[in-house]
Amino acid sequence: MTNSPDRALIVSGGWPGHQPLKFAELIGDMLREAGLEVTASDTLDVLEGADDLRTYALIVPNWTMGRISGEQSKNLRAAIEAGTGLAGFHGGMGDAFREDADYQFMVGGQFVAHPGGVRPYRVDMGPAGHEITRGLSGFDIESEQYYLHVDPSNTVLATTTFDGQHAPWTAGTVMPVAWVRRYGQGRVFYSSIGHDPREWENPTVAELHRRGLRWAARVRP
């Protein structure tokens, strides 16, 4: 089967503190604005249909922590490798399925800490010039400043610099906030912003995420 240019799947669940159902609404609205037909699932069972997964233009994992079966992970990764896009935010994609290294390899990174919890920090655009960030400027936000283990092959779209206030040994560390990468034929977009739905009220955050979803789904901006 080939992927459809007008179908997207959001899979939501896991730790309730990240409000997966609320974020599913926000993500779904952005995808529908892009002309995509959105299917929302609150169970990982939807990942057991290997052939069906490949018909989606985009899959959005929105599932903090939790466990994914070997078959579900294999099916998801096979769909992305075959050309379906993958996009997600914060813990919903970057702290999902901690025991699955193959999933983390596909995403291009994994959450490991957020020193100080929710706190104000600065996000800078770059260093890579990319259609997703064209015309966007850096901004200040109050959220969990994610410290991640990241794949050096990622194309970094935005960064943040740790001040070391809550973990002195991290002072001066420049950490990716958003990136894109390829996984086989699939496009992957990730942003670590998204602890609280109110963060998406920032117009630059909203535009960054809107463009990232469209890019991964191969929808024209």
TrEMBL record:
As given in the record, the signal peptide range reads none
UniProt-listed InterPro entries = Class_I_gatase-like, ThuA-like
Per the UniProt record, one Pfam family is: ThuA
Q: Where is the ThuA-like domain?
A: 7-216
Protein known as = ThuA-like domain-containing protein
